[in-house]
């Protein structure tokens, strides 16, 4: 238990922005489902002791088959998710018995082992951390009529990724607070922030994309091939 690290991989989304008949987390990247690529990265990481996979109820059986086929023996549970990402994460948290938790999107198959390590080490020092990259574009806040409201200073803007690392007990409290207050956030850190937890960013890489829209698949194929690890 001491400093043990569990991972919740969320893969229960519908992938509406991708628009494919098959959910994007199960699309093949070099003959292997995207979510399996993601699981393998954590399976092979020495810091990680337990993995929970959260997926669609109807996808549990095939996920269990892949877990057996690809020998992903750190996966302790495959469970059904909820309506929003947040609900899926919370269900996953309830399965873990570790001191720390990293929450990661099943559709981010390019996170690097060193980034997982750095993210965890920072959390160990300061309590919680998220991978992120400085934004490259100028960001504008725009109102419902399409008018620019403001241009925030780019130097303070980061695009937030996963994994996001927390003490498991603290993240559960943050999730329970959000549930009581009816707050739905798009990442785990936003719930932690509301619960008064200070979150640090750790600079990751622009290649740790979340596969979201069709053009991301081209980038994913290219990245997978150029890393020369297509055979694994
Ligand atoms: N109810 C949900 C919604 C999302 N996710 C997961 O959260 C991650 C990030 O979400 P996103 O990219 O938004 O995935 P989808 O919700 O599937 O996509 P979309 O919003 O386009 O429908 C994905 O791995 C997705 O499977 C989940 O486990 N449960
Ligand atoms: C958690 C996340 O991947 C951080 O960038 C992102 O917020 C998920 O958002 P989505 O709306 O579910 O894509």
Automatic annotation (TrEMBL):
In chain numbering, where does the site feature Positions MEP for the nucleophilic attack fall? 154, 210
Pathway-wise, it operates in:
Isoprenoid biosynthesis; isopentenyl diphosphate biosynthesis via DXP pathway; isopentenyl diphosphate from 1-deoxy-D-xylulose 5-phosphate: step 2/6
Q: Gene3D superfamilies attached here?
A: Spore Coat Polysaccharide Biosynthesis Protein SpsA, Chain A
Which GO terms fall under molecular function for this chain's record?
2-C-methyl-D-erythritol 4-phosphate cytidylyltransferase activity
From which domain of life does this come? Bacteria
The UniProt entry's GO biological process terms, in alphabetical order, are: isopentenyl diphosphate biosynthetic process, methylerythritol 4-phosphate pathway
Q: Which UniProt keywords apply?
A: Isoprene biosynthesis, Nucleotidyltransferase, Transferase
Site residues by UniProt (Transition state stabilizer) = 17, 24
Enzyme nomenclature, EC number: 2.7.7.60
* A Pfam family this chain is assigned to: IspD
Which residues lie in coiled coils?
none
What InterPro entries does this protein's entry cite? Answer: IspD (IPR001228), IspD/TarI (IPR034683), IspD/TarI_cytidylyltransf_bact (IPR050088), ISPD_synthase_CS (IPR018294), Nucleotide-diphossugar_trans (IPR029044)
Which reaction(s) does its UniProt entry say it catalyses? Answer: 2-C-methyl-D-erythritol 4-phosphate + CTP + H(+) = 4-CDP-2-C-methyl-D-erythritol + diphosphate
What is the similarity comment for this entry? Answer: Belongs to the IspD/TarI cytidylyltransferase family. IspD subfamily.
Task: Tell me, in a sentence or two, what this protein's role is.
Answer: Catalyzes the formation of 4-diphosphocytidyl-2-C-methyl-D-erythritol from CTP and 2-C-methyl-D-erythritol 4-phosphate (MEP).
PANTHER family tied to this protein? 2-C-METHYL-D-ERYTHRITOL 4-PHOSPHATE CYTIDYLYLTRANSFERASE, CHLOROPLASTIC
**Name listed for the protein in its UniProt record:** 2-C-methyl-D-erythritol 4-phosphate cytidylyltransferase
Q: Which organism is it from?
A: Paenibacillus wynnii
Q: What is the lineage of its organism?
A: Bacteria, Bacillati, Bacillota, Bacilli, Bacillales
């Amino acid at each position: 238990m001491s400093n043990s690290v569990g991972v919740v991989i969320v893969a229960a989304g519908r992938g509406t922005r991708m628009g494919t008949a098959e959910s994007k987390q199960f699309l093949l990247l070099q003959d292997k489902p995207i979510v399996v690529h993601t699981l393998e990265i954590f399976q092979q990481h020495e810091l990680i002791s337990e993995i929970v996979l959260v997926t669609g109820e109807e996808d549990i059986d095939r996920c269990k088959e892949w877990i057996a086929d690809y020998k992903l023996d750190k996966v302790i549970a495959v469970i059904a998710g909820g309506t929003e990402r947040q609900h899926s994460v919370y269900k996953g948290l309830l399965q873990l018995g570790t001191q720390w938790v990293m929450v990661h999107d099943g559709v981010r198959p390019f996170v690097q082992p060193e980034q997982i390590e750095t993210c965890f080490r920072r959390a160990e020092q300061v309590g919680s951390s998220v991978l992120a990259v400085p934004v490259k574009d100028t960001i504008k806040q725009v109102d419902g009529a399409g008018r620019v409201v403001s241009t925030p200073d780019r130097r303070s803007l980061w695009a937030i990724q996963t994994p996001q690392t927390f003490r498991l007990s603290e993240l559960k409290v943050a999730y329970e607070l959000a549930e009581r207050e009816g707050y739905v956030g798009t990442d785990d850190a936003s719930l932690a922030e509301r619960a008064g937890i200070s979150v640090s960013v750790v600079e990751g890489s622009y290649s740790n994309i979340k596969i979201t829209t069709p053009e991301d698949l081209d980038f994913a194929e290219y990245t997978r091939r150029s890393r020369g690890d297509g055979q694994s």
